[in-house]
Records
---
Amino acid sequence: MRPIPRSLLGILLVIVALLAVFPQFVERYYVQLATKIIVMAIFAMSLDLLVGYTRLVSLGHAAFFGLAGYALAVLQRDLGLVSLWTTLPLTLVVCALAALLVGALAIRTSGIYFIMVTLAIAQMLYYFANDTKALGGSDGMFLATKPTAELFGVAIFDLKNRTTFYYFALAALVASFLVARMVLASLFGRAIDAVRCNEPRARALGFTTWHYKLAMFTIAGTVAGLAGYVGAAQDGIVNPAFLSWHQSGQALVIVILGGMGTLYGPVAGAFVLIVLEDVAAGITEHWLLFIGVFVIAVVLLLPRGIASLPLGDFAGRLFGRGARKRAAAEPGDD
Amino acid sequence: MDVSSFLVQSLNSVQYGFLLFLVASGLTLIFGILGVINLAHGSFFMIGAYLAHWLALKTGNLFVAIALALPLSFLLGLAVERLAIGFLYARDHLYQVLLTYGLILIFNELQRILWGNDVHGVPVPALLSASIPLTEAQSYPLYRFFISIACIGVAAAMYVVIHRTKLGMLIRAGAANREMVELLGFGVKRLYALVFALGAALTAFAGMLSAPVNSVYPGMGEHILIISFVVVVIGGLGSIQGAFVGAMLIGFVDTFGKVFLPEAASLSVYAFMAAVLLWRPQGLFGARPA
């Protein structure tokens, strides 16, 4: 894994600090929009683990996003679990098991087949949720309450408060980022690098590449589950749209828009795309037309995403740290 | 299930299988020769259906509408290849997925602008509106027979073109080894544009044929796209033969799944795909192991 350039690290810390104080200064609507961006950022970051770091292009990642939402709803309604401390771990376990199962099937294939198979499996879940009355069919399920955060009978924080919820989502984003960095910096992460760069050679060196890919798929599915949990808890409803392939497609757009294989790129991508959607939707009912044109423009004009823009250079000049030299000395990715 | 309803369901399966074959063969040809994964393939199905609906309304005759809509969709395919897909031949599949995803958003939105969000029915032509009685209680609509026969006609024409003409020879050669065809001095660019437009027209034709049976509605392209992915995964990517066998299998699994397991009907085809993948990850007719 490439280290984050130090000049960018500065930017990242400034952004996190801005995000932390941001709700004090804006209207409620923007706090909710920011929470939505954070949810998509976590989701896209989990997809980046697959697309950017493992070269597994999944078009069915929404399966785990939606599954988490439905798991939370079912845990609340049928088992009466409302506490964050029980529902969150259980939801993540469900998503991890599902990802293990789906991965075991999908990773038998590669390349274009992998794209189609992940899409088909996600679509299967979509139709299952859409056609099952117990899951609310196409209307989806309402969440009776937000998860409660009590410890020894004392409520530590209240997720019903929108600002508190925003900080909760922000904490989930930072935690996902740190966990992903940790995974990628470990020996396991090195092996994943090897699998991406040259799988036959990694296999020849004695790595059971299949296991590594499956492990990464499971981790990515679990993090996507975290995003789905936060997303469903924010909306107070989960419906088949959570599982739809537009959700998967949007995440893929965000990963490429931000720059894959960076983790922070998808966060920037989520910000740009969601804000753009919000603005376009305010202008015309047919805003998806603009998004379509925008997506095509990104593919043709900015294939390596926002992270490839010379922001590091810019920040370096700003802070006078010679980032250009460091950027030039960095080894290329592939 | 008695014999006659079994027969009716089998005929339905075959008819659905043929329609799927038209869509999936376009998808598999475009992948086999251009090396492009085209998510917008389903959009051509939708466009075909909406063109049939719109032109049939204007001209009052479905056959005239199809005759007009076929060249239109061929030209649209050419335009899409020149303006968008053509930039992607050397790029990773990831970018092909994204670009064609963007195309879907555009086509869906254009459909909403041009024809709105309503579901539209398309009347079956009077000539074919009769039903063929099978028993006292059951009959089979003539139009569904017509669909099957039209599809057989197209499939036969495709077979002849691919196996008996110079264009077909180039297509087969291109599917086997693109670089070699290029090295031998054939205009691959034109071949690509032609194959893409033909694939688009085939799919649009399937959409036109199915419009009177299934009516036209927003999002119809995406449903057929994902089912044809399943077909192609089962049959093996790039294989026309595989697309045919896969389409027929899915036709039967889907139709009989709806009869025997109505509550799990939409899952049956995906479960079937999972089973095939466990057995043969490269698909039934896939050449290289995936």
Note: Strands of chain B lie at 131-133, 139-141.
---
Amino acid sequence: MQKQLLASIALVAGTAVANPLTIYTYDSFVAEWGPGPQIEANFEQKCGCDVEFVALADGVSLLNRLRIEGDDTKADIVLGIDNALLADARKTGQVAEHTVDTSELVVPGGWAHNDFVPFDYGQFAFVYDSERVSNPPTSLAELIDSDLSVVYMDPRTSTVGAGLLYWMKSVFGEQAGDKWAALADNTTTVTQGWSDAYYGIFMEGGADAVLSYVTSPAYHIEYEDETRFKAMPFSEGHYQQIEVAFVTHASQQAELANDFLQYLVSPEAQSIIPTTNWMFPVHPEAELPASFEQLITPADILMFDEDDVANERSNWVREWLNAAS
Amino acid sequence: MAQRRQLTLQPSWLATAWVVAALVLPISAVLSMFWQASAEPMPWRWIGNIIQFTLLQASLSTLGSVLLGIVIGRTLARRSFIGRNWLIAWLDACFVMPGLLIVLAILLTWSPTGAVGQFLDWKFYGLPAILLAHWFFETPLIARVVMQQMQRIPEAHIKQAQQLGLTDWQMWRLLDWPAIRAAIFPVAGLVFLICMTSFPVVVSLGGGPGSTTLEIAIYQALHYEFDFYLATWLAVIQLAIGVLLALLILRHLLDSWGAGPINVQRSRPELTSTRYFDGLVILVCLAYWLAPILGLLVKAGWQPLLDAMSSAKLWQATGQTLMIATASAMLGVMLAIGLQAGRGRFAMFVGYTVMLVPSMMLATGAFIILWRYGDALWQRLAAIALLNALMIVPFAIKLLRPAKNAAQARYGRQMTMLGLSQWQRWRWIYWPKMATAIAGALGLAFMLAAGDLGAALMLSSHDLNTLPLRLYRLIGARQLEQALWVGAWLVFIGVMIQRLLAWLARRYHA
């Protein structure tokens, strides 16, 4: 009798804790103001399953965690690495091919991978306060030569900081080292993360310009009804970041994982992205808020080939270390 | 006087074996990685720059604190004014305050958004910020030693000098400097060593690859780039510089670090000619050391306090900090006692050795061991506690030695005659006589371990969360008001533990 009772309790408990769909992502994605909570609620309703986000500091931490856990990882999906980390992600041996239909998606520069699903993109830009800076520079070279104080992020800890590394390299090539040295003269500080620089220093008046995205001004328009923060359009063009997700080889529920990714790129989920993650949606039918119409359009989209990034990245970091010190 | 040699496990052997293992294991882990790692091109220019910067900032920090400390120490030693003892107590507190709280004070005062800094058009992050912070907590140490030494000048000499009508400069040349000279160089050496390896200050205020020290670079190589080869190279360079420095100054180091109360009640007869100068010095003291804290208290509202206290992360951090600090303090003090259980000379040698090895080298070793053999939360906590315990050992030895020597002098002969073993000596003689000293050492050890950022940050993972880590993250996110309350909470816990230990010691004696 007692045994039966125990068995039935175990059975009930067993179904109640049926493996949730576990998604490793970076922490601002699942913050209460991020896209995570809404997307989670919507998808859970559709699938009748449980979605669990595990938040880590950033894209690099995601891969380090995956590397350490290997096949024991609980992650079904890794969400939130960018186009610079594709080769590193494949090196973990955990990137599985997906079955998501991406034919309708639009990403500037195109997308031709069947293992990574892009879910948003944006171009890097320097943001300034137009009430403090009246004649903003019109090119990266001009900014570096100007006497505006600049704050940016460490390329080793921040994907935005890494974005500047690629941006500088794609614009200046061999001269990047000299340009880093010149930029060091008007650098207020180099922070570990984007929010330290943006909110902690720039918004407090500690610097004239901050490294961010062309979409950042939309946030101020939408939430603060404030139009004074603008992105500087640069004549050399802007480097582009594409954020992607992938299903892990270790996943025991790959089908459900693929369903989630299919939902992530649907018009419904994509309409959540612009006002939560402050990036451009990849689905052309996604709704865009009015504030996005006021954003600058980059003169040119810059992107390196992913293998170049993977091979050269540490050399470029060394170049920055040598030049900026 | 034949001492009976017993073939039992002596506390001194156990402690020595433990300390040696705790040093050798991480170092060999680092070296094994060094030989395995594939040789990527080293950023030598950058490494050269950071060595240069490490030495430059440590030199300027030391020079500034010594000059300021002499001026302030002299003034405080010879002037009496209302609140003098409070100011001296406050300066003492600045020296033992967790580094991150000092970072906070400097940020809130001098940064481009700070109370004073917003009116200054200067490059704050980097060398200026680091120097401001190092002077903030090293000057009080120097000032304390200066005061201590000046107390030793016989009053008759001072009276005589004043009757002769010596000027202030002549007083300095003939009386003060000769008294200070012998003590100042070893302390300056200690200050240099502390500044060279200072972690929280440089990691929070450095701002960019240009103003990085070796200590920080090791951490970044491992945590930012997973680059064992670079980290090991840097650790070896750091070790080499440390050994070199140690050979030059370490002989004096442990003796110079003065603990315990000094009699600062008595001030010497005053010279009227220096009144305005001394007044100015006291004003500078108040502005530099007291104003930031007052500013903090004015600025920190109740809302950040509520935010800080209602955060579940704070309580998680408090729990982990209590675990680490309690374990470290107990182990560290036990090791210090064990090392001194024998004839004493060997304890000093091991104490030197611990101070000599850069803590980041040990943390790197621990990182590698954890990375290879598992990194569950409890393993990380244990590793941090072990590293901190080791760091505590030299300080604990220093604090316990006077009490042990006194007991030894008083009962040494009887203990030898009775042929007591090390265990018995501790149980029946030292322990009852040293309870107060042990409580004091435990209290300081707890504070040191609870305030540690270096080891915790090096071994940090997503579920590791100590109070200094929490403080560091809040400062990184520039949530300075909330950080202030977390810092105050950390200090409060430390003070309460010290009080508790002192009470226990009193009860034991009663």
Note: Chain A touches chain B through 37 residues (CB under 8 Å).
